[in-house]
Amino acid sequence: MEIDPGKLNTRDMYQWMIQTIIPRPIAWVSTLSPGGVKNLAPFSFFAGICARPPTLMFCPVNDRFGNPKDTLRNMEATGEAVVHIVSHKVGAAMNDSAASLPPEVSEFEKFRIAEKPALKVKPPRVAEALVAYECVLDRIVRISEGPAGGNAVFCRIVHLHVADEVIGLDGLVDPVKLDPLGRLSGDYYTRLGERFTLERPE
């Protein structure tokens, strides 16, 4: 099958992308509005960028009316976030927080998601998250405007929380203990399956 994106509508192209770019890690992002409302939302267009300086990226897509999501508006206004890795044990809460709520309603409060204060930024972190990156805004790159328009948010990592329970005997993160969720298409998610090694060439 050969597909020409120029001949597809936005929804169909989006479906091809989310069905083939799998599994996708999930950034569960907490931010604060200028008025102090605590926002929490998941994004599966998410990646680490580099370690010097330590930088990651997540991509809030405009809603169907072309409006920026609360997370994007908060990042523009306050420039701080906490980006969490989603483990299986917090998967249901993450899914709840994907609901469309008015900007004045906090997902932390609405869905009774326990929080902890961050150390270097103002947004709270999810108490049960096993990995959390405290971040400050580096830059926002707007790919397009209007409905489904893309925005790439680049964040500088200023602090990292890693739960002791996910550290293995070698002092490194044990992926089985972290038990991360991967996003597929539709309502489907995945957990870690079979693992194998491939020796990297010199």
Structural features:
single chain; 202 residues; alpha+beta; three-stranded antiparallel sheet; 5 helices; 12 strands
Briefly characterize the structure.
With 202 residues, the protein is α+β, with helices and mostly antiparallel strands. Helices cover 17% and strands 31% of the residues.
Low-confidence stretches: none
Mean pLDDT value: 96
Radius of gyration, whole Å: 17 Å
State the end-to-end distance. Answer: 36 Å
Order of strands in the sheet with most strands: 3-2-6-9-10-5-4
Which structural class is indicated by helix and strand composition?
alpha+beta
Based on CA inertia axes, which overall geometry fits?
A: globular
Compute the number of helices: 5
| Overall helicity | 10-25%
* Biggest sheet record: 7 strands, antiparallel
**Share of residues in strands:** 25-35%
Strand/helix succession: HEEEEEHEHHEEEEHEE
Number of DSSP-assigned strands: 12
Structure description:
The strands form three sheets. This protein has a seven-stranded antiparallel sheet with strand order 3-2-6-9-10-5-4. A three-stranded antiparallel sheet has the order 1-11-12, with no helix packed on it. A two-stranded antiparallel sheet has the order 7-8. Helix content is about 15%, strand content about 30%. It contains five helices and twelve strands. It has helices at about 10-20, 70-80, 90-95, 105-110, 175-180, and strands at about 25, 25-30, 40-45, 45-50, 55-60, 80-85, 115, 125, 130-140, 150-160, 180-185, 190. It has about 200 residues and is an alpha+beta fold.
